[in-house]
Amino acid sequence: MTAGPPAAVGASSPSPGPLLPADADALLEHLDPEQRRVAEHVSGPLVVLAGAGTGKTRAMTHRIAYGAATGALSVQHVLALTFTAKAAGEMRSRLRALGVPGVQARTFHSAALRQLRFFWDSFAEGPFPELLGQKSGILARAMAEAGFEVERETVRDVAAEIEYAAVSLLAVDDYVEQAASRELPAGITPAGMEQIMRSYSEIKSRRRLLDFEDILLTLTGLLATREDIAARIHGQYRHFVVDEFQDVSPVQYDLLMRWVGRRESLCVVGDPAQTIYTFAGATDSFLHRLPSRLPGARTVSLVRNYRSTEQIVQAANAVLARTGRTPLVLRGTGRNGPPPRFTEYADDRAEAEAVAARIAGEIAGGRRASDIAVLFRTNGQSQAFEDALARRGVGYVLRGGERFFARREVKEGIALLRASAATRGPGALDTVVGEVLDAIGWAPQPPAGTGAARERWESLNALVDLAATIQRDSELPVPLPDFLAELADRQEHQFAPPVNGVTLASVHAAKGLEWESVHLVGLSEGLLPISFARTPAAVAEERRLFYVALTRARTELSLSWSLSRQEGSRARRSPSRFVGEMQGAGGKRPQAVGGAGARSARPRPAPQQCRRCGRVLVSAVEQKLERCGHCPAEVDERLLAALLEWRRERSEHMRVPAYMVLTTATVNAIAEVRPRTAADMERIPGIGPVKHELYGTEILALVERHAET
Predict the structure, then answer these.
(1) Where are the alpha helices (DSSP H) in 132-249?
(2) Which residues of the chain register pLDDT less than 70?
(3) Res 16: pLDDT
């Protein structure tokens, strides 16, 4: 960004003048009493405790619009902060509809990056550093330089630790002091983490790279040391609104307080019951402590849930009561629907096939695919549902996949719309856009089947649907240049229009979203709660995650789990403890369904216990190894050395990294179990059907030879 007046620091077009008092009052007409109190509080600090589905975005945007209409707020001096580009885009869209298009609504990182770029030449030498989108490549090099084995899973876990240290404002030495009490990546000691962190930092400095955490840290340091720059930002931004405040990290809170300075025009919105990112450094303590930080702060609670049916609200409240946070008990609006549906399956494949069949039935009954979601605890659970939906010709969108505006057909469509803007006359916007995109393959009806042609059509149809939505909200024809401006704004902030496919997402990725029908799958002990959630605090966070998942559903909620991983395997799993808590709210008892159809319910097997200490085994990994994670492994060191040598030879022969043959964790498990039969191989975490077919015979032979010697 080129140098300019302070108003250019992240500012956009000026907003229109204040509305007439009558218009200001009209902004409050359709708000409930609590939302109205939020909107009318336009001066001084405000804490909004907002339960799931209670209209917090509506309250925030009306507060800004009402402040602008009454002259209490100048919108070019407002900075609204969110945690996702989608939330920021939705806020900007709603503010435009309320007649205040000049508000800056951005994520923390977007706002910080914009300011860093603006002031870079005034405090630094040389060009602006290159932004590091993914840590994995540089981090793998840092680990190799520090002498560590580079495996994909380990790199991912090390990256998470580095991010935790950065957002928690921990220098390397401070992090090392805490590392002994943290669950570190496999095979890496606190001293090893220190080596990797210093090597990673040195490589970034040498190559002039900034990662996402560096953006916040650099700007925080700049505001702390350069009063002139801080003064210019204080002159530009005087009123602050922060969404999802329960998820702020120490570095985000520190930056926010430096943005706010000595002013008190701060509105924060959050829900302690939706605190689900503590593993990444987030904490709701700032939400709880803000009233003492700003003594004049007023607190307003939003509890009327407008999203879900009474049945879903009751179930969510049953879980909410156990989340370990002071609950905001939700109040429904009287809308009735079916009770939550519980189903137990024999194995993972049976679960995926049945869920896909049910979704296909929903779509055949008239429900849009984009109004349906399949939610799971870990991304690794998605593949079975992707395959099952594809076999039925049901399109799906994997949240976190390719960015919408990076797709080739989207780029072609926008380019064609720009070229047509000067020649197209007035008309209904969706009709105009449809006629233009017809030249590159869009049609009113989708092509048959799945595949590339269907995916291309879905992308183009998302543009047509967005045009239809914008036109529907306007009484006059919307000019094509206005639509292009909307697309440009969405592209800048990666706020993609919805694509009509079933959403597959982890619960963490689903935060802030909602669907008519939600299928919450894989609800067994060891998955939700996840196996490594061993402390009461960790289990409490898993329960809050479950609560977030439930409250994504508007009308229908289906919950399911399976008793074993593979067809024909012995049932080792049990349903999540959270299911029992929820069933107490009036849900139906679970149906028991097998791979080929219904089967009768059978007595629940006794919990499996650790062969050493007797502790109940929760996760699938623990059950396979027949010991809990607290008891040390009895690894045959000579066998382990032989297995590692075999893996090295195999990887060289196949010309792939060693971890692609077997991960180190899997090799360690083999050296512990010492399998002698195919049934023994089933006990090895990480050995699925493919690995068994590829390497099972070799591994059994190696173990046999080792036993003989």
Answers:
(1) 136-145, 152-167, 172-179, 190-207, 212-225, 227-236
(2) 1-22, 323-327, 399-404, 424-427, 448-455, 473-475, 492-499, 566-571, 584-624, 628-631, 656, 659, 689-690
(3) 40
CB atoms near residue 166 (< 10 Å): 22
pLDDT at site 493: 60
Residue 273 tokens, joined: 């019951």
Cβ contacts of 330 within 8 Å, gap of 6 or more: 51, 52, 53, 54, 303, 304, 305, 313, 316, 317, 320
Contacts 24+ apart (CB under 8 A), 224-231: 224/258, 226/123, 229/119, 229/122, 229/123, 230/258, 230/261
Nearest CA among 543, 76, 513 for reference residue 275: 543
- Cα–Cα distance, 21 to 70 (Å, whole number): 7
Q: Which residues contact 393 (CB under 8 A, 6 or more apart)?
A: 449, 450
Residue 251, CB-side half-sphere exposure with 13 Å CA sphere = 24
Residue 557's nearest CA partner among 518, 524, 587, 514 is 518
Span 515-571, pLDDT tens digits? 999 999 999 888 888 877 778 888 888 999 999 999 999 999 999 998 887 666 666
Cα separation, 508 vs 280, whole angstroms: 12
